[in-house]
């Protein structure tokens, strides 16, 4: 579904991902893990086509409207004046009829998704009035109605209580059983071992990628920690990679850091 070929992505010539290669098979369920700043979010944004590689390439075998992306919570602009129901409806954009008409079927789908994430009764609340965990649930509901083949989740369980996390893990397993390809950035090794058959371990470079049991070894985790401790954000300019980094969709750095929910 996704092939990553010798991918390097830099921010102002500082590589955040360095010569990464691997693939996400169609229907696979993969965790992306690594220390803070190891390039996990950068990898997801590169798959979504939001960042232009400095070297190498990412190939996705799905049209844009069959891809769904949950951004890391810290990057989401919560001041956007949108109700819960409208936010979830945004997931239907590719299915809406002429003039963006939303029929009763789509409305029902949205209502079902909002109920599934435990937010029935919250439909008219603005997203800005929700707790972080509630907003994450709204965004999961939006993913549910989106019906994507490739689903990318950046730290989806941040700010969530354990009961909600368990319910949303069930949803991820359901997506997996339906043959969708799911990639999730996670932090909890035990959760990864219990629920994710495949893992990619990053530390700006790739430490290991494959079956979770083979990736999450003490030696690999140790290597990732050592690489992270050796980072020097000011010294690490990469001269070998041709093109300057550029944002494809937005031109300002502010836009790069925030996106509407
Ligand atoms: P992770 O998600 O693993 O914590 P990121 O992919 O967000 O890591 O970031 C990787 C590195 O790139 C970090 O050093 C981070 O500071 C840097 N970085 C991320 N986004 C930007 C940006 N917009 N401008 C400059 N540097 C950035
Ligand atoms: Mg991140």
From TrEMBL:
Claim: Transcription is one of the keywords in the record: no
Domain of life: Bacteria
Gene3D superfamilies per UniProt: P-loop containing nucleotide triphosphate hydrolases (3.40.50.300)
GO molecular function, one term: ATP binding
Alphabetic keyword roster: ATP-binding, Cell membrane, Membrane, Nucleotide-binding, Transport
Domain ABC transporter residue range list: 2-229
Keyword Nucleus: no
PROSITE patterns linked: ABC_TRANSPORTER_1, ABC_TRANSPORTER_2
Pfam families: ABC_tran (PF00005)
InterPro entries attached to this UniProt entry: AAA+_ATPase, ABC_transporter-like_ATP-bd, ABC_transporter-like_CS, AztA-like, Metal_Ion_Import_ABC, P-loop_NTPase
Stated family: Belongs to the ABC transporter superfamily.
Name of protein: ABC transporter
């Amino acid at each position: 579904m996704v092939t990553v070929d010798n991918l390097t992505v830099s921010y102002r010539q500082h590589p955040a991902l360095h010569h990464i290669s691997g693939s996400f098979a169609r229907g696979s369920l993969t965790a992306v893990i690594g220390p803070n700043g190891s390039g996990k979010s950068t990898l997801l944004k590169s798959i979504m086509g939001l960042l232009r590689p400095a070297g190498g390439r990412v190939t996705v075998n799905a049209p844009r409207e069959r891809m769904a992306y949950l951004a890391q919570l810290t990057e989401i602009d919560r001041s956007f004046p949108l109700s819960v129901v409208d936010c979830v409806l945004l997931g239907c954009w590719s299915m809406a009829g002429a003039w963006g008409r939303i029929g009763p079927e789509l409305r029902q789908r949205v209502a079902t998704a909002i109920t599934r994430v435990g937010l029935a009764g919250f439909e008219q609340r603005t997203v800005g009035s929700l707790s972080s965990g509630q907003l994450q649930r709204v965004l999961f509901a939006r993913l549910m109605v989106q019906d994507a083949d490739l689903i990318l989740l950046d730290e989806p369980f941040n700010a969530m209580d354990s009961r909600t996390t368990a319910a949303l893990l069930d949803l991820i397993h359901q997506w997996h059983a339906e043959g969708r390809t799911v990639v999730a950035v996670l932090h909890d090794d035990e959760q990864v071992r219990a629920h994710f058959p495949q893992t990619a371990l990053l530390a700006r470079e790739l430490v290991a990628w494959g079956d979770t049991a083979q990736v999450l070894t003490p030696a690999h985790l140790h290597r990732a920690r050592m690489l992270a401790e050796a980072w020097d954000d000011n010294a690490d300019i990469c001269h070998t990679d041709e093109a300057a980094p550029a944002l494809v969709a937005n031109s300002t750095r502010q836009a790069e850091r925030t996106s509407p929910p």
